[in-house]
């Protein structure tokens, strides 16, 4: 998968060199490009924001540097003739649809994702409208809270999406038994020693009875989901 990120803080994404995603890049599974939005400015101060039309607090990101940067990325992909199949451009935004495990799974099958990290009070609306004439565009929110900018949200999305790409996580079975994969929270996990600080591992897990273990885990998942996230059990 090709991933492009547009940001005014390119250093923020240096951590994608390490861990599982770093290995996936070295293995050629993920091809990453990080673009500094300020490289597309023409003034001495490399200005990317301005005051909002109509008044109001804060600053809005100007359309020109975004247009120029996205033009470069989208034209390099060479697929804007048929934009149902070309790159998918994602703008993290508290005003977007909520990111979920099923969205991560859907996005993990894309060939080319472009993430545009907004800062300040947002990006000029015409950037979304103009981009939508050439590519699929989605506004995506991490949840019902406000971050200072899109960078942290993009990092979270790339981690959730990247680990679902075949070959990124060594043992694909470990993906199946996780929270949210079957719509429930995952069961608690234990490792050795069997007794620690007076706390014992539930005996069923030491029994070797696989059916009993599966039933126990399922019951734990249901109990935990009912208690912590009853909203997930609504039809
Ligand atoms: N940018 C600011 N807040 C955000 C959120 N909750 N999700 C995604 N991007 C954001």
Automatic annotation (TrEMBL):
Its main location: cytoplasm. Residues 1-234 form the tRNA methyltransferase TRMD/TRM10-type domain. It is an enzyme of class 2 (transferase). GO terms for biological process: tRNA N1-guanine methylation. Coiled coil: none annotated. Keywords: Cytoplasm, Methyltransferase, S-adenosyl-L-methionine, Transferase, tRNA processing. S-adenosyl-L-methionine binds at residues 118, 142-147. It holds the Pfam family tRNA_m1G_MT. It catalyses: guanosine(37) in tRNA + S-adenosyl-L-methionine = N(1)-methylguanosine(37) in tRNA + S-adenosyl-L-homocysteine + H(+). It is found in: Cytoplasm. GO terms for cellular component: cytosol. PANTHER family: TRNA (GUANINE-N(1)-)-METHYLTRANSFERASE (PTHR46417:SF1). Specifically methylates guanosine-37 in various tRNAs. Homodimer. Belongs to the RNA methyltransferase TrmD family. NCBIfam families: PRK00026.1 (NF000648), trmD (TIGR00088). This is tRNA (guanine-N(1)-)-methyltransferase.
């Amino acid at each position: 998968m090709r991933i492009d990120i547009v940001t005014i803080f390119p250093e923020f994404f240096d951590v994608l060199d390490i861990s599982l995603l770093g290995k996936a890049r070295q293995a050629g599974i993920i091809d990453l490009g990080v673009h500094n939005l300020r490289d597309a400015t023409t003034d001495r101060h490399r200005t990317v924001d301005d005051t909002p039309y109509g008044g109001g607090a804060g600053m809005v990101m100007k359309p020109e540097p975004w247009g120029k940067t996205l033009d470069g990325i989208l034209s390099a992909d060479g697929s804007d003739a048929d934009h149902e199949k070309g790159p998918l451009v994602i703008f993290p935004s508290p005003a977007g649809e909520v990111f979920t495990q099923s969205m991560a799974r859907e996005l993990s099958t894309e060939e080319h994702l472009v993430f545009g990290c907004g800062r300040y009070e947002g990006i000029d609306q015409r950037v979304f409208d103009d981009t939508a004439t050439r590519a699929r565009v989605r506004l995506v929110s991490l949840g019902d809270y406000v971050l200072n900018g899109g960078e942290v949200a993009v990092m979270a999305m790339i981690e959730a999406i990247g680990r679902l790409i075949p070959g990124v996580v060594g043992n694909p079975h470990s993906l199946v038994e996780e929270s949210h994969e079957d719509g429930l929270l995952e069961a608690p996990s234990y490792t050795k020693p069997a007794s620690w600080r007076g706390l014992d591992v539930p005996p069923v897990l030491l029994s070797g009875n696989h059916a009993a273990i599966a039933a126990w885990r399922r019951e734990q998942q249901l109990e935990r989901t009912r208690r912590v996230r009853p909203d997930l059990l609504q039809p």
